[in-house]
User: Fold these one by one.
Assistant:
Number 1:
Amino acid sequence: MRKYIFICFLISVLFTNSQQTKYNSKQPNFLFVLVDDQPFDAVGFSGRYPFLKTPNIDRLKNEGANVENFFVTQSICSPSRASFLTGTYPHIHGVNQNNKHVDPNWNEFAPYSTHLQAAGYETAHIGKIHMAHLKGKAHIRPGFDYWYSFIGQGEYFDPQVNENGNEFQENGYITDILTEKAVDWLKNKRDSDKPFSINLWHKAVHQPHLPAPRHKSLYIDKELPTPPYDTHKETFKGKPEWQRKKTFGFDWKKNLPIPLELPEQEWPINYDRNMDLLRCLSSIDESLGKVLATLEEMGELDNTVIIYSSDNGYFMGEHTYLDKRLAYENSMRVPMVIRYPELIHKNTTVKQKCLNIDLAPTILNLAGLDIPNYMQGESMVDLLKGNDVDDWRDAILFEYFKDTYWPYAGPNQIAVRTDRYKLVDCFLKKDIDELYDLQTDPGEMTNLINDSSYDAVEKDLREQAILLKKQFKYNPNRDWWLKKVMNLKRIK
């Protein structure tokens, strides 16, 4: 009898252990929510806008990690989205403009979703892709089993869409439509025996900022606070001439001298436009809440790595600017929160400098897959675990290639940013560069490039720039990719 009981106990232990081993070795799912043009501080938990409510975004931060210093390698839609997918810089994957004819060379720089597919994942892309404006089946990018997207920026209301190569018009508000498609795919269209990876990439909150009708009067009784560090009082004293030209570039007469600084004043901020951006964000947060509820209903919430970020930052009147593109913090820094309780403790804060090219390696690492050699980013897994990573990067490289979108465009530029300093080089022989001490001047209002007491800092940053450009194979020729990347047969 004792022998029988012991055998039953042993079988029970072995079964329990095998089940535990099976659970621990289960590959995680991935949900990647990407917003367009969301300022890094336009989230409820930042406190930047006291009235702003983003409970579901805040939940990810409270139950996971806030990657506090997360940057894009280039602050424009298409280049950034391609970098998220491929783990490479724009000058490598080839999409360094919002060019309607150009995609990355997917054969050479496959998106992380292709590697997940090969490992048995079922994958979906729902939402904005931008990049090449392709039609029909050609619009479906590699690495996705299900495709639902649109050309370019798309429309907020009643958009033209492409579902698995079929083009038609939907009725409704774009954020709600994309959410419904994501929920439907998760519940009804995927193979439930496979791990999944789904991109929910929104059009919102891109300008023109058109909120859902239910949010049109949201915050109507609230007042927008002025930008921190008085950046709305920018005079451009000691800053490059091109920035003064840019502020009123379309008004300057060629025969008038450019003043060394502009009059000190509070530059007008488009409060209605900025408030509408925040109103658009409310439907994004609602969308996230619906998808989280769906995952919980499916029993997959805690086994899903949930990633939330933006393709670039956005100026809300700081330094007189709209849009993004430039090397100021408001443009190159974005929100990044990640929830995965199997690995990430609640309320984890990652302070190290991370880049959008780090996400693809991180996803593959979490899936237990090898990171391909062409990916230039680093896995953030150890940082997300809260481990000390002694050899993490000390500086990041940001780049921008001048485009034709006047008046938002600036000159070609790179920026090197460390924990404390930032050097911006615009390659202009008849103008000055920029140097900021982010510790004493987080608003980047005082250019120190001509301050001799910072000569050693400038020298160090320029040396770091040389090393970073070499490390990432920086190519300043913005047109090198035309023959290499552009697949003319696919463009109609």
Number 2:
Amino acid sequence: MTLSWASIFRMGLVQLCLGAIVVLTTSTLNRLMVVELSLPAVLPGLLVGLHYGIQITRPSWGYKSDTGGHRTRYIIGGMASLGLGAFLAALAVTLFETGFAVALALSVVAYGLIGVGVAASGTSLLALLATATHPRRRAAAATITWVMMICGIILTSITVGAAIDPYSHAVLLKVVAVVCGSAVALTTLAISGIESRHVVAAESESLPLRQGLAEVWAEPRARRFTLFIFLSMTAYFMQELILEPYAGLVFALTPGQTTTLSGMQNGGVLAGMLLVGLASTGFGLGSLRLWVIAGCVGSAVALLAIAAVGVLGLPALLQPAVIGLGLFNGMFAVAAIGSMMALAGEGRGAREGTRMGLWGASQAIAAGIGGLTGAAAADLMRALTDDAGAFGAVFSFEAALFVVAAGMAAQIIDGAGHRISTNMVPGE
């Protein structure tokens, strides 16, 4: 029995919860450490890099889904780990002023829990989708859950942005506690009972994880796509840890205003995803390769615009440029999802979870490297020039990486085929 649309929507609520908690750690807490506490940007960069680094375990979680296992407990347990980690990370922020060593040690533990939580919950959820969803609905299921994750990020960014102004440590802890507690409760209600009603066939032969990964890596298309994901996601995540500090340092925006700006960016991501879906399903416009290239090139142009408004002192153009970045990021993301879902079922059978785990690990490593590199480069450039010029240089380098990624997409992704079908979005 395959997943119904109602079950897919319920699983999308889990993704919504993941996005709601993660955005607190990558945007709000990061900005507070850099701007309010005057800590070097490389510190939150290292912490976020830690949680992404731990996600190298994603192939293991995906492989477990291929050989059978209790995914529901991994999903709920992972969300609980994520929620606890996020609250401890917020608590650590409030301690940096009085005890740096204690706060740093607590932060390491917190971001370790966040990494474990995202890897266990996110990968197990996607593996269940890949194996329990009818093949014709897989791409649609992936898109639904991704859109809901973006919605969670947007809602949290806007709500938290309004709730924490005027800022105080006490208000921060209350808001984070409510978000994390609600996410764990909603996840438990949403996922409970779904797995027990859907029998997912386990692979009869049980190979060691290393051998399973070797089989997937031996597939040329899977290997090349893994490398593409790494480069493109490095570019995608380089601005993640520096955009809010940039807005705070260069344009003197408050914590609430920069959190809201992050919400606007993710609103653009959602609009970009919907644009690609509507254009391709309603009018049959564009192949996956075209949309990926357009998203990469457009993201590069938007990043150059964000850099320019700081250097030229044009604060009124910051929001449009950030929303534009989100729009093109969304176009790239949904086309990449389409490619990923199309490729997940190719090659040796019963390896969907392993492939998704491999690409998820590639994305996580790229996100950690990209975020850390962006933060470290911003610190270095700020020692050499003014804030606007320093951040602008990093945004410009990120734009160059997107251009290179567009060139890779032109060579790797099919242009004639692999169009985004009507099954990519709800409405079948």
Number 3:
Amino acid sequence: MASGSYDEDLVVSYREADVWSPATLLSKNIYSEFNEGAASISADGRTLIFTMCDKGRTFGSCDLFFSRKYGEVWSNPENLGEVVNSKNWDSQPSLGADGNTLYFSSDRPGGLGRRDIWYTRREDSTWAQPKNMGAIINTAKDDVTPFIHTNGENLIFASNGRVGFGGYDLFMSEQKESKWQAPNNLGNSVNNNLDQLSFIISADGSMAYFSQEFKKADGKLRSQIVQWPIANDSLVKNTSSYIFGRVTDAVSQEALKAKIELFDIFTNELKYSTYSDSISGEYFFALNEGLSYGVYARAKGYFFEDFRFDIQNSSSGQPDTLDIALSPLEVGASMILENIYFELASYELTKNSQSELK
């Protein structure tokens, strides 16, 4: 690093009890002489989307890149591609808990203002053409730093194009019946006459972290990360819990890479899909509390395993554990289907059985 110059790097800090460790470099594979910043990580901690401004590797001034974690090692970054990235500024990603919906800010053509919030969805490994979130979210000025809560139903972002307290204020929109509602200002307990940006909320809805600008004694402006305790259910109604586990071969006990899918038992809707880590066999989901899920795990050459999992409201913050052992396919072997349900005193199957049968 040349004297008098600096660049942005991704760092990580871990909390033990109420103490955060000193920040250290996230990964040497991700570090470069260029700017890496504005990052988002999936709920399982294994997919990282971040911004890189390396003109030799971008389509525009800044692009969105991704890295995958295998065991304890982050892979070399790859550009998300020209379907997602544009020839303009693309930055400030927020990845949904399932890793398949991505929100970000961009000043590309086709928006409503200078910087707008866009989103894209992934099917299998392919990201779709990004869509503008429209006039419900975006204004004629700047709408930036989107954050999608773990529940997938609350979107918080910063804007200087709405009525507020001054500078960038933080707003929240709630999704109801698949439609985003008009955003509400988070109020003067969060916003002031300067800039507030990059608001995130813990999965249980109890704590928020964001960047707040303040004026120093010498009159200069400075930004710092602050935390804000949230009163119970006052901001996010539908909180989330976790399910964690390890997939192994039932005979050898070795770790397996398996596809794991979670369906809402009552709607038969696929909620989440992921793969267990190929080295450790570990997987992780963030799930909305108060729902029942059918959990299905499968790998080539093995019987699939199925479970019913009820996510109850929990204040412990600790994940529920569900280890999965897959049995190798063998001639004459059999399995039991768990998520099969019948109407009362009838042989007719209920709709709850559909995800299992499919």
